[in-house]
């Protein structure tokens, strides 16, 4: 796990009504070249991500689909919560309605894994206690229809309407990808015509940095958003859509400290403008922290901020104060989703793994290999807090406690032979453990920037390193 000891949270100076903030408001009302659709399961970090997107990308946001195969146990109720959350967001002239649709409550994998009911109950109680009812002037338009098809239909319809306007579609999925995998089944041409890009919050490489114990699994070798519907995830990765992945290890650069809500709450109490949305955001963070017993991260907010930065750069605003280089390093990796039995079920397999197993040719996906914590915190918090000034001690952007060690060490003759060769060559092997006969993997917590001799233990040298937005 990596924490940035020198980072601190700095939000642009000025009051909520200062010129920089006003300029930011005008900028987010401008139409960019891409529409935005969010796919969520209404976890608490999803709610934080939605809060950001409805401010930073207000003009881009066209639809929100809710998966019933993840955190929320009722997609229809989840859709209603999204509509209520949008009551706290900007509305008015120049902003289109946002279509909100419930999706399937049955995974394509036909599994029954779930997050603990106590966690979803905590989130439900918070949402019901703070969100206003949907009004007659709401920006949200609830889409009705059979749950099995509604969300997928909305994804296809959004792709068609954006393409008709000469715009393209970005989808940020922060949930099991059941809804998104069903859309190409309905109309693959529409998604290709709209040059659809998918930004996935989730996934993990070769059984490293899993968290499936949180969502009904038993080995912690897969990440929940992929694990909960691995069949859908596999279809999505094989669909030919442009895939951008913010995986579980990348998220560990962005820990949520237990002290951060208090620091931000003090700012809210003295702020003007968008106060209900800021109170909601801080409350969501507080409740997010109490729904688990291990360190958690800004998983879904990171994917939304990454997409936001990319959209700005696409719109030739790379020099804008709100833009920046979100990913310090990106890698294009040939991956596919494993449907093998545990412990490999639901993990992303690299090319050497799939070749060894005799599986079909994987497709390349773009991984944000190393995010810039300072860029994330600046863009995320300055958007949500409207140009206010806040300085947070570096410790507030570090993990609250040592990350639980949940990676299972496994040794077999194939890996021992590789490690033996490394020893002979006097190559460092610290931070690697054996995961299969075909290759070795890092132990949980081995920083990506400190990895050495990946040609021996990680099949990454054939991938390309890209300059990232």
Give the terminus-to-terminus CA distance.
23 Å
* Average pLDDT rating: 78
Number of beta-strand segments: 15
Strand content: 15-25%
**Helical stretch tally:** 17
Largest sheet: 11 strands, mixed
Indicate the percent of residues in helices: 25-40%
Pairing-aware structural class of the strands and helices? alpha/beta
In terms of per-residue confidence, which ranges show pLDDT below 50 for 5 or more consecutive residues? 1-30, 318-323, 402-469
Shape: globular
* Rg result: 21 Å
Chain-wise SSE layout:
Layout (H helix, E strand, L loop, with lengths): L8 E2 L8 H11 L4 E7 L3 H13 L4 E6 L8 H12 L11 E5 L14 H14 L9 E4 L3 H18 L3 E6 L4 H9 L1 H6 L3 E5 L22 H4 L2 H8 L4 E5 L1 H4 L8 H10 L5 H16 L8 H16 L12 E11 L10 E3 H6 L6 E9 L1 H12 L6 E2 L20 H12 L7 E3 L5 E3 L11 H4 L6 E3 L3
Parallel strand pairs: 2-3, 2-6, 3-4, 4-5, 6-7, 7-8, 8-11
Antiparallel strand pairs: 1-12, 9-10, 9-11, 9-15, 13-14
């Amino acid at each position: 796990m990596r924490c940035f000891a020198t980072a601190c949270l700095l939000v642009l100076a000025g009051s909520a009504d200062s010129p920089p903030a006003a300029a930011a408001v005008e900028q987010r009302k401008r139409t960019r070249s891409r529409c935005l659709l969010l796919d969520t399961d209404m976890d608490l970090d999803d709610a934080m991500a939605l809060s950001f997107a409805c401010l930073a990308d207000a003009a881009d946001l066209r639809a929100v689909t809710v998966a019933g195969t993840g955190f929320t146990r009722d997609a229809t109720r989840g859709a209603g919560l999204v509509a209520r959350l949008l009551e706290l967001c900007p509305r008015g002239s120049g902003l289109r309605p946002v279509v909100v649709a419930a999706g399937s409550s049955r995974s394509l994998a036909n599994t029954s894994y779930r997050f603990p009911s106590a966690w979803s109950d905590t989130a439900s109680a918070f949402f019901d206690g703070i969100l206003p009812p949907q009004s007659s002037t709401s920006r949200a338009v609830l889409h009705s229809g059979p749950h099995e098809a509604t969300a997928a239909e909305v994804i296809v319809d959004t792709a068609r309407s954006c393409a008709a306007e000469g715009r393209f579609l970005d989808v940020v999925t922060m949930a099991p990808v059941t809804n998104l995998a069903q859309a190409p089944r309905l109309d693959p041409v529409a998604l290709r015509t709209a040059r659809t890009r998918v930004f996935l919050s989730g996934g993990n490489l070769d059984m490293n940095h899993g968290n499936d114990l949180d969502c009904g699994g038993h080995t912690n070798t897969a990440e929940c958003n992929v694990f909960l519907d691995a069949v859908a995830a596999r279809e999505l990765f094989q669909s030919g859509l442009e895939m951008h992945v913010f995986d579980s290890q990348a998220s560990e650069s962005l820990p949520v400290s237990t002290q951060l809500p208090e620091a931000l709450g003090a700012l809210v109490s003295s702020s003007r403008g968008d106060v209900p949305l800021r109170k909601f955001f801080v409350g969501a963070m507080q409740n997010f922290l109490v729904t688990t017993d291990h360190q958690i991260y800004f998983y879904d907010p990171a994917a939304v901020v990454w997409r936001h930065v990319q959209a700005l750069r696409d719109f030739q605003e790379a020099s804008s104060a709100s833009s920046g280089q979100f990913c310090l390093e990106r890698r294009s990796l040939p991956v596919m989703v494993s449907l093998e039995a545990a412990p490999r079920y639901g993990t992303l397999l690299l090319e050497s793994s799939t070749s060894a197993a005799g599986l079909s040719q994987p497709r390349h996906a773009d991984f944000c290999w190393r995010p810039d914590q300072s860029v994330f915190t600046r863009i995320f918090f300055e958007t949500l807090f409207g140009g206010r000034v806040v300085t947070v001690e570096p410790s507030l952007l570090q993990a609250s406690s040592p990350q639980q060690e949940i990676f299972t060490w496994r040794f077999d003759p194939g890996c021992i032979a590789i490690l033996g060769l490394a020893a002979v060559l006097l190559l460092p092997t610290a931070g690697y453990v054996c995961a299969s006969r075909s290759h070795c993997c890092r132990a949980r917590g081995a920083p990506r920037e400190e990895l050495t001799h990946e040609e021996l233990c990680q099949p990454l040298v054939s991938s390309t390193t890209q300059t990232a937005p």
